[in-house]
Amino acid sequence: MGILISAIGQGLIWSTLGFGLYLTFRILDVADMTVEGTFPLGAATAVTLISNGVSPIIATLVATLAGSLAGLVTGLLYTKGKIPILLAGILTMTAIYSVNLRIMGQANRSLLGKTNLFSYDFLRSLPQNFPVIVVGIVIIILITIFLAQFLKTELGQAFIVTGDNPKMARSLGINTDSMTILGLMVANGLIGLGGALVAQNNGFADVNMGVGTIVVALASIIIGEVIFTDTLTLPERLITIIIGSIFYRFVLVIVLYIGFNADDLKLVSAIILGLALMLPRLRSKLRLNTFLKRG
């Protein structure tokens, strides 16, 4: 039971990555590789600040801002430098590796003995693993409300149109470059926040902790879409990302339970995502075959 509760908590805080990638992958329709650099950037920033006596709340907010700045760099390379988005993300991700080493002063840094978001006194009285769930729920609710309200505004609608049809957006007088940069900043800010939360929960930050995070974020989105195939409103779509993230964590727990090694998790994650991506197509073929047989 403790492992299952832990999986729920992990799913909640990791869903922040799903939110961030949803903005770029689904709404802007771009493949942003900055994710794998922004995630450890948020972790490194938060852990270093907390280690130096800064409040965990302030450190987490600064980590979010650091992620947004990384998104800004990628956005400028893409829109002003005319570098393909995939390459722009890789360039930023590569540069962030050195930035993280500068921030931490070493390859990894521990939070041993330091108070973080999950170890405040009022949370310590809760049963094991429940502090992560409580903090995760609060943060996820705030992010969901923020995104749902933001995307209803004129600015948010302009952002959506930019992803749907850039030519039409420009014909309506929308500055698509600005919208793209804004989207990358908000998305990477959320991913930086996710890095800060995961690092505080784990008790350390490492420069290599971003490897494979894009697969985890994509899995949250795709699994949620596979489970809920009907047309959904935006708030409902965000909720499916949370459910997808938790479900993904449950699958990893099952994989470990049946005897797989922790070193195999990256491989298992890639396989899960691959199957989730193929499932809608397989489902469509199955429905077509059933229709033809009936005909």
From TrEMBL:
Keywords: Cell membrane, Membrane, Transmembrane, Transmembrane helix. The chain crosses the membrane at residues 12-28, 57-78, 85-104, 130-151, 172-197, 209-228, 240-259, 265-282. Coiled coil: none annotated. Its main location: membrane. It holds the Pfam family BPD_transp_2. InterPro entries: ABC_transp_permease. It is found in: Cell membrane. This is ABC transporter permease.
